């Protein structure tokens, strides 16, 4: 049989846990407060990192490379259009086109340098940039050979130019598109993830903050009950500091999220559409000039011209560009109106953007009208008149009308570019010094908690 242990009167069973006394409870309350304070700090630092990383990827890493890619594409197409125009006129009469070609070449070089300086995603950017660098050298060499033949009135100049143009079509423009897509895919995926993750980490920081506040209120109540003191000043201060910084953190993180939305959806979506419109318009200019050069590729040049012009803007049946421009209002598209300029007119956000975009569309309409006359003259066999209309700089001539379009396009771009830069700056500004301030506030809260509870602990020592 097992033995039975009989406790002496007044003895305690050693298997029964001894209840915590007030001193131990105060110490454990301090540990819990410090743990919640640390949790709050970790949540704040995590939220700040996620928010800032999204802004970095979109505002500093992807956007400049996408812009550089489209800038390159437009500049390369402009170079080719200027070269073709020089071949359209008699030898010695193309000085203006030579000057335009040099300007476009310098712009292409600047775009290539900007892209190379901002490589972030490895070979997906590096390989297109290498193709652009090598291809530009090959294009210029073959083009110069064509121009030399043209200066000697050698009919072989056309074939030599066509060989150079193949480099533009098969290497340079696809490489610029590949550079654009490499960065655009990262930007889109990053933004898609950021819109959900930002909300989650922001909510996590708020929950951690409220847990800390709840713990501070609980401990304050416990101390008041046990020590019969109404207020513990350090804990009250810690509560006020925690509440104040929680409100500040919410405003800062929300402001960054709003800036990210403005930068990506409102500004950059328009920037990208406008750059694509400009690039396609320059490619169309080159195709039109090539068409007038003649040769066996005339039909393919005409098809390529119509395709690129349609990418810029495609009208609904029975409408003119001026009518569509007038009917387009803030974020209200016209049914059947498509193209890059249509995308821009459906994304109006900033002051002055609507009027500028409408004028850009009207100016594109004037360009299309001039180009249509060039095509009519060419098809009617009036090649000299077609060349004069195509290369002329008067407002009613193709190059002159295109210049007005390009000017208004860049004005619309500038509106969105300023908004984009401001949004990115505000996004980073909202989080400036956030990690340092969060750490300092966390340390202050911890110090106040230690001070507040230590004042009561000393009474039990």
Topology pattern, helix = H, strand = E = HHHHHHHHHHHH
Biggest beta sheet summary:
none
The count of helical stretches stands at 12
What value does the average pLDDT take?
Answer: 88
Radius of gyration: 34 Å
Number of beta-strand segments: 0
Q: What overall form do the CA principal axes indicate?
A: elongated
Low-confidence stretches: 1-8
Structural class: mainly alpha
As a percent range, the share of strand residues is under 5%
Distance between the termini: 48 Å
- Helix content estimate: over 70%
Walk me through what this model shows.
- The protein is mostly helical and 461 residues long.
- Helices cover 81% and strands 0% of the residues.
- The protein is built from twelve helices and no strands.
- The longest helix has 71 residues, at 157-227.
- The model is unreliable at 1-8 (pLDDT under 50).
How would you summarize this macromolecular structure in one to three sentences?
This protein has 461 residues and is mostly helical.
Salient structural properties:
461 residues, mainly alpha
């Amino acid at each position: 049989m097992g033995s039975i242990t009989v406790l002496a009167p007044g003895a305690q069973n050693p298997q029964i846990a001894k209840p915590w006394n007030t001193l131990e409870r105060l110490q454990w309350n301090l540990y819990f407060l410090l743990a919640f304070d640390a949790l709050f700090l970790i949540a704040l630092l995590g939220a700040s990192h996620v928010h800032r990383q999204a802004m970095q990827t979109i505002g500093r890493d992807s956007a400049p490379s996408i812009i550089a890619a489209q800038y390159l594409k437009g500049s390369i197409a402009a170079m080719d259009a200027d070269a073709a125009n020089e071949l359209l006129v008699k030898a010695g009469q193309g000085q203006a086109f030579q000057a335009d070609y040099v300007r476009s070449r310098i712009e292409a070089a600047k775009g290539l340098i900007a892209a190379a300086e901002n490589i972030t995603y490895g070979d997906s950017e590096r390989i297109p940039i290498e193709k652009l660098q090598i291809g530009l050298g090959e294009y210029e060499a073959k083009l110069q050979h064509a121009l030399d033949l043209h200066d000697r009135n050698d009919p072989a100049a056309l074939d030599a130019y066509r060989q150079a143009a193949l480099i533009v079509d098969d290497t340079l423009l696809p490489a610029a598109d590949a550079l654009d897509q490499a960065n655009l895919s990262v930007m889109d995926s990053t933004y898609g993830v950021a819109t959900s993750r930002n909300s989650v980490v922001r909510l996590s920081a708020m929950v951690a903050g409220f847990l800390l506040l709840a713990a501070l209120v609980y401990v304050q109540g416990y101390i008041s009950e046990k020590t019969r003191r109404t207020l513990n000043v350090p804990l009250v201060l810690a509560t006020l500091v925690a509440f104040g910084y929680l409100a500040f953190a919410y405003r800062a993180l929300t402001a960054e999220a709003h800036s990210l939305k403005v930068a990506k959806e409102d500004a950059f979506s328009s920037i990208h559409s406008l750059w694509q419109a400009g690039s396609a318009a320059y490619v169309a200019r080159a195709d039109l000039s090539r068409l007038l050069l003649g040769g066996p590729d005339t039909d393919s040049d005409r098809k390529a011209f119509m395709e690129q012009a349609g990418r810029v803007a495609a009208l609904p049946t029975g409408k003119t560009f001026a009518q569509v421009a007038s009917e387009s209002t803030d974020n209200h598209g016209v049914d059947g109106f498509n193209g890059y300029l249509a995308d821009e007119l459906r994304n109006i956000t900033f002051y002055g953007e609507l009027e500028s975009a409408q004028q850009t569309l009207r100016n594109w309409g004037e360009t299309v009208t001039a180009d249509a006359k060039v095509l009519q003259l060419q098809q009617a066999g009036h090649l000299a008149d077609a060349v004069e209309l195509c290369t002329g700089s008067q407002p009613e001539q193709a190059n002159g009308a295109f210049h007005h379009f390009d000017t208004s396009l860049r004005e619309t771009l500038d509106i969105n570019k300023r908004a984009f830069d401001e949004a990115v700056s505000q996004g980073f500004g909202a989080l400036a010094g956030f990690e340092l301030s969060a750490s300092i506030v966390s340390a202050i809260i911890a110090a106040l908690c230690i001070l507040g509870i230590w004042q009561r602990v000393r009474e039990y020592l």
